[in-house]
Design a protein that fits this description.
Radius of gyration: 21 Å
Strand content: over 45%
Structural class: mainly beta
Largest sheet: 10 strands, antiparallel
Shape: elongated
Number of strands: 12
Number of domains: 1
């Protein structure tokens, strides 16, 4: 349940029983790879939540992903790590422009290393802030300008950025 700040009413993101309504999309994965004498196992789970049609959350997409990886080396040595990512975006439509801000944060809080016999904790992560701007040129043609800033909470890490320019036809 989510409180709508404009009406002070509670809304659900979706209902499993409602026809045509999607609450979330869930992915569960398991992978294996062998490179010469190195074996790698990955596993993960992610949930992407979709906003309802008739309230403030219309168009919202957000979620999380939890991923783990184990690398098994020769001589019974292994490394293991876990990663957590959260994200959200929501478009805001105006007359001829749609602004879609987004935010994401990812970190690898735990690493296990049996070579050094240590468990390492990491409180730092990476963030992504950005937005896309869609301009309606005609009824079926849109131009797009986007910008993204990528940074780290670790002191001394430089910030990187990217810009995109594009267009698309709606059929």
């Amino acid at each position: 349940m989510v409180l709508d700040p404009f009406t002070n009413k509670f809304y659900k993101f979706g209902e499993v029983a409602a026809r045509g309504s999607i609450m979330k999309v869930q992915t569960i994965s398991l992978g294996y790879m062998k490179m010469f004498t190195t074996n790698i196992v990955t596993f993960g789970v992610s949930d992407v939540f979709l906003g309802q049609k008739d309230n403030f959350w219309k168009g919202f997409v957000g979620g999380y992903a939890v991923t783990g990886m184990a690398v098994f080396l020769a001589d019974n040595q292994y490394l293991g790590t876990a990663a957590l990512t959260v994200f959200g975006t929501k478009p805001f439509a105006f007359k001829r422009i749609t602004v879609s801000p987004m935010i994401a944060y990812s970190m690898t809080p735990l690493t296990v290393d049996n070579i050094t016999k240590k468990i390492n904790f990491n409180e730092h992560g990476n963030y992504v802030l950005g937005s896309n701007f869609d301009f309606n040129i005609t009824q079926r043609f849109k131009a797009n300008i986007g910008g993204t800033v990528i940074g780290s909470t670790m002191p001394g890490m430089p910030i990187s950025w990217a810009m995109t320019i594009g267009s698309r036809f709606q059929f």
